[in-house]
Each structure stands twice: as structure tokens, then as C-alpha cells.
Amino acid sequence: MNELNTTFIREQFPALRGSWTFFDNAGGTQVVKQVGERINNYLFNTNVQLGASYEISQFSGERVLEARQMWTDTINASNNYEIVFGSSTTALLQNLSRSLVQSFKPGDEVIVTNLDHEANIGPWVSMKKFGIVVKTWKINPDTYSLDLDDLAKLITDRTRLVAFTHVSNITGTINDVKEITKFVHDNGALVCVDGVAYAPHRLIDVKKWDVDFYVFSMYKVYGPHYSLLYGKKKHLNKLAGINHFFIGKDEVPYKLQPGNVNFELSYGSKGIIEYFDAVYSYYFEDNGLPLFSRLGKVFELISSHEEKLAEPLLHFLNSKKGIKIIGEKTADKNIRVPTISFNVENRKSSEIPILVDPHKIGIRWGDFYARRLIDAMKLSDNDGVVRISMVHYNTLEEVDRLIKVLDSIL
């Protein structure tokens, strides 16, 4: 297995030429240069309304469709109609909830977790005002993980949807989406998976997992502030539209994109995938492979590198008295991503990052919109957790520098 050449990788990110070390990547990654180049190109060359007969409007429409098709291939969807673009994961899930609730009946049930970012909880909880019963699948407080046995106690023949996260943006633990989805489907319900904290680190395969809905934010995957919702076409076809009244129910995905998509960000998002493909070409010679297979090899490199980044940091945190890691204590790439949260005994989480800031290293404290998890762990009075979130453009040298700084203040 090749090792990731971080010099080559970092050359693709203009922001990394500066003096700051970015370890707040779960909040938003740096943008790869191909994205900026495409956004600039679109705005200066094809910035017209779509759908007109004149040539440049037709060309502009083709550019947006190219992006939709590229993302279809990237996440292994079956049809580009299954790709819904939007401004944020929060907005996409709120829109999905608004549409989906119209097919539910009072007394139907939805199950959420107390592990998720609020984006994948709040929209479903809001269904209560329509008579929907909302249940909570709670984490095991000892393991910080979701147990399928606990879900089995909640699910009934009235359950219509189970919403859960692929990876917690606090614990970094990877949930077994395929296993959970099969269990939910066997019980006659749908799943909606928040993949925001998973997408920067691993290849998405909606077909393999058989998920009904899957959503993530591109600005946390090296791209613009933009998001994507995948939905099986058979489900999207049945959903009530939330666009203008004259937009037909069969106009998927437009009926779920009020105000239409952002054209330049759609086209610009192609740059994310082109970046990953450039990484593939740097390491591998077989360019005959399909895009999805090429990306699989790239993410194998990424996950191995990220495991190496997490190992020394977790070793340091495990060795320090008074530090409690919130999540898995191992760097094993099969069970976690390098999003690492912790608490320091007798110190508020808010005290730590401000001592790191002068070293031009960006880390963060808080609840990270997983307020229900922080409340469940009784960490609100402690100002939540300290979070260090790494991605593949980070280096071992950066990790070592962070460890030295932490060692001097903890």
C-alpha cells in the first residue's frame, strides 16, 4: 500500500500555504483549488438562468447536470434524479421532513438518536405537531455507541422512519449503517442517515448500504458551502413537492429544491471529485477503472493516513492523567475517524483552545450542535468537549506540534 504524499496533497489546498494548522476540520475543511477554479469559471463565463433556448443557457444547464451525474457516480447512486442539492444539511433535512410528513398519519412513529447533530433530530421532532410519535434511541453511556438491541425495544409496526448518524461529530465512532439499515427495513421502516462526519474520511456507497436517504455537507468534504441529499428514486417520486404549486410531483429532484439549486456551487463541487481523481492518477496507472472504483482506492489511502495521524494523539491523551476521551480510545480506522473529543478534569473545555490559539493551531470546544448528546453525558456545565478533528491533508509533524502544545498546558 502506498503512503499518502502530504506534500502533493497540500499543494492542492491554497489555504495550507499559510501559517495556520487546521484541526477544526469537522466544522469545515479547507477548499481544494479545483473547486475555486470551477466556481470562478462558471460565474465569469456561464452565469445565466437555465432552461432558455439560447446556446449559453443550454451549456450552463449541461454544466449543472454534469455535476449531478458526477456525484451520482461518486456515491454509487443509480440515477442522477436521486441527487438533491441544497444550501446545507440542516436545510435539506428540514425540507425532507416537510415533504415526508405529508405521507405520515397521526400515531405513526419516528425514531431519532441522542447521538446526532441536531440537523438530523430537530426536523423529525417537529413532526410531533402533526401527531407523529417521536422516540429516542439513546447511546450506551459506557461505550458512547448505539446498540441495536436498544433500537429493537423501540421499533414497532407503526415505525415509519429511523434517523441516525453514520459517524458522531463528537465521538468519531463509525456506526454500521448496513446492519442498522437491514434491521430497520426488516421491520418495515425507512432510514435517513446523516453522513456529514463520515464523508470527508470514507467512500460513500448508498447502493451497498441500501439506505433510503443519505445526506452530507460538501464544505466538510473540501468544497463549497453546499450540501447533497441522496434519496432512492422510488421514495422521491412519492414525496409531496415543496416547490411552487405548478412544479409537478414527477419533477424530481426540482420539486424538492425550492428556488432551484445554486448553479455555480453545483458546478464548482465537481472540483472535489476531480481532486480525488487527481490523487488517484498520482498513485495509480490503471485509468480504465470506473470513477467509483478509483475513488475507493483513494479513500483507502486516506483512511490509512488518518489512522496514523490519530495514533500518536490518542496515545498522548490516553497517557495523561485527568483526561477522558469521549469515544473510542483506539485509532483503528475500521471503528473511528480522526475526530477526537475529550474532557480535562477540573477544567472547563472552553479554557483549553484559547491557550492553543497563540500557537496558530485551530482546535475548538463546545457541543457542536450535538446538544442532546452533551446534555445526556452531563457535560453542558463543563462547556461541552474539546475537539480535535483531523483530515488527510494534516501531517504527523502538525500532530507532534499539537501534542507538545497540549503537553505544556494540560
Primary descriptors:
alpha/beta, single chain, Aspartate Aminotransferase, domain 1, 410 residues, seven-stranded mixed sheet, 13 strands, Aspartate Aminotransferase, domain 2
Question: What features would you describe in this structure?
Answer:
With 410 residues, the chain is of the alpha/beta class. It folds into two domains: 6-32 and 290-409, Aspartate Aminotransferase, domain 1 (Alpha-Beta Complex), CATH 3.90.1150; 36-272, 3-Layer(aba) Sandwich (Aspartate Aminotransferase, domain 2). The chain is built from 15 helices and 13 strands. The chain has helices spanning 6-11, 33-45, 55-74, 89-100, 122-125, 148-154, 177-186, 206-209, 233-238, 263-268, 270-283, 291-319, 353-356, 371-376, 396-409, and strands at residues 21-22, 83-86, 109-113, 133-137, 159-165, 190-194, 213-217, 227-231, 323-325, 339-344, 361-362, 364-366, 385-389. The strands form three sheets. It has a seven-stranded mixed β-sheet. Helix 12 runs parallel beside helix 15 (396-409). The longest helix is centred in the C-terminal third of the chain and has 29 residues, at 291-319. The radius of gyration is 21 Å and the shape is globular. The chain starts with 5 loop residues before the first helix and ends with a helix.
What's the SSE blueprint?
Layout: H1 6-11, E1 21-22, H2 33-45, H3 55-74, E2 83-86, H4 89-100, E3 109-113, H5 122-125, E4 133-137, H6 148-154, E5 159-165, H7 177-186, E6 190-194, H8 206-209, E7 213-217, E8 227-231, H9 233-238, H10 263-268, H11 270-283, H12 291-319, E9 323-325, E10 339-344, H13 353-356, E11 361-362, E12 364-366, H14 371-376, E13 385-389, H15 396-409
Parallel strand pairs: 1-11, 3-4, 3-5, 5-6, 6-7
Antiparallel strand pairs: 2-8, 7-8, 9-10, 10-13, 12-13
Helix pairs in contact: 2-11, 11-12, 12-15
